[in-house]
Design goal:
By secondary structure, the protein is α+β, with helices and mostly antiparallel strands. It has two domains: about 200 residues, Ribosomal Protein S5, domain 2 (2-Layer Sandwich), CATH 3.30.230; about 190 residues, GHMP kinase, C-terminal domain (Alpha-Beta Plaits). About 45% of the residues lie in helices and about 20% in strands. The protein has 15 helices and twelve strands. The strands form two sheets. Strands 1, 2, 3, 4, 5, 6, 7 and 12 form an eight-stranded mixed sheet that branches. Strand 9 and strand 10 form a beta hairpin. The chain is globular, with a radius of gyration of 22 Å.
Length: about 425
């Protein structure tokens, strides 16, 4: 019912709970963590895709002196689904309470936009929680966007994205980057610069069809990111202790991962020093350079160019020679090279960042055997979802069936979708 007409559905549910129609309905998409995964918190650019799995928020000014928030998804899961608080005295609850996202949003909106009154809101989402599709960011973007429309605050997409990041990173203390919030606010295929001024470049869409495969293994960004960040910091501090470290490299490094000038260092000039590090920090730093270099090549493809064979081999290595040649000779080299990059980046995530699991590898192998051009983890990893690129919908349907037979608990054939938008 909701899938066929989510706007009509959320209106009927809003009337059931509140006895009136909402003043505003907005929605925001989930996102595919397409290219340069685990790089946004380092200040490196990332590429995101907004998809037609969306979070909807119906909202009105409260006729009383309190805010009331209802989550249909929490209701269906037989969990606490209603939150009540007053905007004048908003604070976060100590437990992992869904209402904290809304409370934190109201705190941020009051900080930036002055007088915001209490609201009655209803939330419905197609986006699975903890599946690597940025469900929390979509909730924040949709809710902040809804309040923006309701009160005429004049916030644009960038404002909403930055406010959503502030909520998650600074108020809720979740160690995230800006990928999720900007990816949801803008939708489409976008290159997001994660350093000031946080420019967003909207890219042309590509042929092919994406499949999202949910492993059913819940993950938590808050559990994964701090560990990987600490491992990088260990490696950076050991590098800075090397007396013979090239001065030009030293000047671009720092003791903290977020302060390094990653995009100003060539992998080849730091590589000799990396191999003197312990295995774990070496792998994390090596990952950072290789992931970013392969993303640069893929961006050339997305912008209409085809890098030379020599460029591809230099970045991916001679072990990828035959696959590179095969992709370049394909009738659709753009699609084939993007799929190749996805496969390369998944292997980096698996082997250098250690965020895959045997169950995920089994699902991925099935997807590739069914015709997937590329398949990689979307999001933090250690659970969540895989994204797969197929040449057409028929192949995508085969991939979905094969993946469901090999451990995926559910999946979707998705379309590239727009970002934050008003539905009613």
């Amino acid at each position: 019912m909701a899938d066929k007409d989510p706007t009509r559905y959320i209106v009927s549910e809003y009337k059931r709970f509140y006895g009136l129609e909402p003043e505003v309905i907005v929605s925001a998409p989930g996102r595919l963590d397409f290219l340069n995964t685990h790089q946004d918190y380092k200040g490196l650019p990332v590429v995101s895709i907004g998809i037609n799995l969306r979070t909807y928020v119906a909202i009105s000014r409260s006729p009383s002196n309190y805010s009331r928030i209802i989550s249909l998804n929490m209701l269906w899961e037989d969990k606490g689904f209603q939150d009540i608080f007053r905007v004048e005295n908003t604070f976060l609850r100590m437990d992992k309470w869904f209402g904290n996202y809304i409370r934190a949003s109201m705190i941020a909106l009051k900080q930036c936009c002055g007088s915001i009154g209490d609201v009655w809101a209803l939330i419905y989402s197609d986006i699975p929680i903890g599946a690597g599709l940025a469900s929390s960011a979509a909730l924040l973007v949709a809710f902040i966007g809804g309040v923006n429309e309701l009160y005429g605050l004049g916030l644009d997409r960038r404002d909403v994205a930055e406010l959503a990041y502030h909520v998650e990173h600074d108020i809720m203390n979740i160690p995230c980057g800006r990928l999720d919030q900007y990816g949801s606010a803008y939708g489409g295929i976008v290159r997001i610069e994660t350093k000031p001024p946080y420019n967003v470049e909207e890219l042309q869409r590509i042929n092919g069809v994406f499949v999202v495969l949910d492993s059913g293994i819940k993950h938590s960004t808050a559990d994964i990111h701090p560990l990987r960040q600490a491992e990088i910091n260990t490696g950076l501090r050991l590098l800075l202790q090397m007396n013979d470290l090239d001065r030009r490299v030293r000047e671009k490094l720092a003791r903290e991962y977020y302060a390094v000038k990653w995009d100003m260092i060539r992998y080849e000039e730091i590589k000799p020093y990396l191999y003197r590090l312990p295995v774990i920090p070496r792998k994390r730093i090596e990952f950072t350079f290789k992931m970013n270099d392969s993303t640069r090549l893929a961006l050339e493809v997305l912008k209409g160019g085809i890098p030379s064979f020599e460029k591809w081999v230099t970045v991916l290595g001679w072990g990828w020679r035959d696959k590179i040649l095969e992709a370049m000779k394909n009738s659709d080299p753009v699609l084939s090279l993007i799929g190749l990059t996805m496969n390369y980046q998944h292997i980096l995530l698996r082997d250098l960042y250690d965020v895959s699991l045997p169950q995920i590898e089994k699902i991925r192998d099935a997807a590739l055997s069914a015709g997937g051009l590329g398949a990689k983890i979307s999001g933090a990893g250690l659970g969540g979802s895989l994204i797969v690129l197929a040449k057409d919908r028929g192949t995508a349907e085969k991939i979905l069936r094969k993946a469901l037979d090999n451990g995926a608990v559910r999946g979707w054939i998705v379309e590239i979708d727009s970002g934050l938008r008003r539905e009613a």
